[in-house]
Give the backbone structure.
Amino acid sequence: MILKYMITTGMILGAFAIVGTSLVAVTNSGTQERIAEAKRQALAETLHALIPPERHDNDLATDTIDITAPEFLGSKKPVRVYRARKTGLPIAALFATIAPDGYSGEIKLLVAVNADGSIAGVRVLAHRETPGLGDFIEESKSDWIKGFDGKSLFNPVEKHWKVRKDGGVFDHTTGATITPRAIVKAVYNTLSYFRQHQSEIFNGPAAATPEATPHG
Amino acid sequence: MANQHYIGIAQDGLWKNNLIFVQMLGLCPLLAVSNTAINGLGLGLATLLVLTCSNVTVSLIRNLVRPEVRVSVFVVVIASFVTAIDLAMNAFLFELHHILGIFIPLIVTNCGIIGRAEAFASKHNVAESLVDGIMMGSGFLIALVVLGAVRELIGMGTIFSQAHLMFGEGAHWLTLHVIEDYRGFLLAILPPGAFICLGFLVALKNLLDQRKAQRVNKPAVEPIPAAE
């Protein structure tokens, strides 16, 4: 008697689990294409903010290479590099560099380096810096991040690749020097890596499984 | 008579028995995403939808489910709706979904929702549960938007910033720069600011209720002491 009761109760629970799971499965199959498309679009917008569509004719999202260089790119894991080309010639490389020493952990960056070694632009993709204090690094909050545009390894020279407080050329706000210091360092390291490995970056085989976002 | 009954349910949800201001349920998502009015609106709408769907479903199945497994079934129902809405938001409101992040899936753990399923929907008919879900959800939504607007105003001097994430590019006009060149007040944006602002809002609500009670009591010769 009790056994029968238990089995029926279990079956009721099981039936609801099946119905619930089906609802989720249906929604998933109905939305997954749109989600993938939205992700692709978001990525394309991010990349195109730094390398406008007219500067390249390849598909940035799939022409990628994964590079592991912890001392330069800030992560022990492979870092994604998007390659921009026009008529087959290298135009720029966009590094999903990580600045590991922000005030509250990692700052995820996108550093676009032109083939001539100058910076096409830098953007902060994700960070956990203090809101209102360290978040001036976001493009939507201030123009600070655009201060990197056009800079290169020799402009300014190495000893000036620092925030003003450390004797360099890069501004910072009062009370927040750790955040910009981390970014300046990460950008400089990315430039150094690019200078040493330019041909490998552009000639290496494309990554087999391109992901939708720079940081997974 | 029937209308009176539904009005009573509505008043309960929106004011008298508000999930946030009175029952104090679901504070975790409330405090985490109420830093701007738009974030509050996004999570509020998602919660409203989940609460309404789950209330109706639970009410529909209330005679089918045995007491031993009812909580498990409620959780399955709520989790399914939350996952479906999470996916839908990811597809249609991609950027807002990105900002709200983990808090959409966490609606599952909003005790307000399972609370309504257990305390109301499992004991009332579908129509009543529907009204209760909408009203309780709206009460939650209003609390989120008000708290978000207050924190945003104090913290950044704006209201409805980033409205375009929710309503598309045409909605930039919604953003009100109430205070120009505002330097910002960090505390209001950070989690402690959420607790402080919520405290003030609850105090304000109690003050309003007290005033109303006094006004009602005035015609009486002697104020009747509250018998609670």
